[in-house]
């Protein structure tokens, strides 16, 4: 069962690993990020970041979309983590069952508006976010 969908450019880090995982009883984390899924060093780093006992998958957006029927059948409590709003939108357009998206760190950048201490969105990210809500 999907318990949390989160956007966080840091992907897997302390707050995600310990706070969210513990609070929601997460047993499997699926990192959905094209860059991480195709970079062996990033995959290794992410695997080192997960707590022992937690299952971790790292897929591209397209792989995740394709695997969703199987993912839905898993008995795990699942957290999906996306690295950016664009990949989240692509996923949500293909998989319409996401009702809520949790925003983690999205760094400050030129042209971004600050929405909280850790969330800064440029206009295209705001549009992605609006369109991700089906």
How does the SSE layout of this entry go?
Elements: E1 2-7, H1 14-24, E2 28-32, H2 34-37, H3 40-49, E3 55-59, H4 61-73, E4 78-82, H5 85-94, E5 102-103, E6 113-114, E7 120-121, H6 123-132
Parallel strand pairs: 1-4, 1-5, 2-3, 2-4
Antiparallel strand pairs: 6-7
Helix pairs in contact: 4-5, 5-6
Please describe what this structure looks like.
This protein has 134 residues and is an alpha/beta fold. The chain has one domain: 3-Layer(aba) Sandwich (Fructose Permease), CATH 3.40.35. It is 43% helix and 20% strand. The chain contains six helices and seven strands. The chain has helices spanning 14-24, 34-37, 40-49, 61-73, 85-94, 123-132, and strands at 2-7, 28-32, 55-59, 78-82, 102-103, 113-114, 120-121. The chain has a five-stranded parallel beta sheet. The protein has a two-stranded antiparallel ribbon with strand order 6-7. Helix 4 (61-73) crosses helix 5. The protein starts with a strand and ends with a helix. Keywords: Cytoplasm, Kinase, Phosphotransferase system, Sugar transport, Transferase, Transport. Pfam families: PTSIIB_sorb. Its main location: cytoplasm. This is PTS sorbose transporter subunit IIC.
């Amino acid at each position: 069962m999907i318990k949390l969908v989160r956007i966080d450019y840091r992907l897997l880090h302390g707050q995600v690993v310990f706070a969210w995982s513990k609070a929601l009883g997460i047993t499997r984390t699926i990192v959905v990020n094209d860059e991480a899924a195709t970079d062996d060093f990033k995959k290794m780093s992410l695997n080192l970041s997960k707590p022992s006992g937690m299952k971790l998958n790292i897929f591209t957006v397209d792989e995740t979309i394709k695997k969703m029927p199987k993912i839905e059948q898993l008995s795990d409590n699942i957290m999906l983590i996306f690295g950016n709003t664009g990949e989240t939108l692509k996923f949500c357009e293909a998989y319409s069952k996401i009702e809520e998206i949790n925003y983690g760190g999205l760094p400050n950048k030129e042209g971004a508006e600050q929405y909280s201490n850790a969330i800064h969105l440029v206009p295209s990210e705001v549009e992605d976010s609006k369109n991700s809500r089906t």
